[in-house]
């Protein structure tokens, strides 16, 4: 089980959190074509290695934050608040 350090509550078990998808995605403009919407909704990176993700502390403070996780080892490399550039 992963241990994740919430920016507000500190280190907690993974079961207190919910995964929110890939971080740092830019939503396309409303007048974009179907191809742009398809890419935004369905196409995601699936890297082998470090990956930026969004998580929410559901059974805690309810705060959304970004996390960099190694996809092979599940090691949490970094945790940082929403709106901040990837370290």
Q: What does this protein structure show overall?
A:
This protein has a single domain, classed as Folate-binding superfamily (Folate-binding fold). It contains 1 helix and 6 strands, in the order βββαβββ. It has one helix at about 35-40; strands spanning about 5, 10-15, 20, 50-55, 65-70, 75-80. Strand 4 (about 50-55) and strand 5 (about 65-70) form a beta hairpin. The radius of gyration is 14 Å and the shape is globular. The two termini are about 25 Å apart.
Defining traits:
4-stranded antiparallel beta sheet; 6 strands
Quick overview of this protein structure:
The chain has one helix and six strands; from the N terminus they run βββαβββ. It is mainly beta.
Give the topology:
Elements: E1 3-6, E2 10-13, E3 18-22, H1 34-42, E4 50-56, E5 64-70, E6 76-81
Antiparallel strand pairs: 1-2, 3-4, 4-5, 5-6
Q: According to CATH, what is the class?
A: Alpha Beta
- Total of DSSP H or I helical runs spanning 4+ residues: 1
State the helicity in percent bands. Answer: 10-25%
The radius of gyration is 14 Å
Q: What proportion strand?
A: 35-45%
Mean pLDDT: 95
Under CATH, the topology is which? Folate-binding fold
Give start-end ranges of low-pLDDT stretches: none
The biggest sheet amounts to: 4 strands, antiparallel
Structural class, please?
Answer: mainly beta
Rounded to the nearest angstrom, the distance between the terminal CA atoms is 24 Å
Output the helix-strand order: EEEHEEE
CATH architecture: 2-Layer Sandwich
């Amino acid at each position: 089980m992963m241990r994740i350090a919430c920016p507000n509550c500190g280190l907690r078990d993974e079961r207190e959190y919910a995964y929110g998808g890939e971080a740092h995605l830019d939503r396309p403009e409303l007048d974009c074509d179907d191809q742009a919407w398809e890419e935004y909704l369905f196409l995601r990176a699936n890297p082998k290695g470090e990956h930026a993700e969004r998580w929410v502390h559901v059974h805690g403070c309810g705060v959304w934050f970004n996390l960099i996780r190694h996809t092979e080892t599940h090691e949490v490399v970094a945790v940082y608040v929403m709106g901040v550039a990837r370290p």
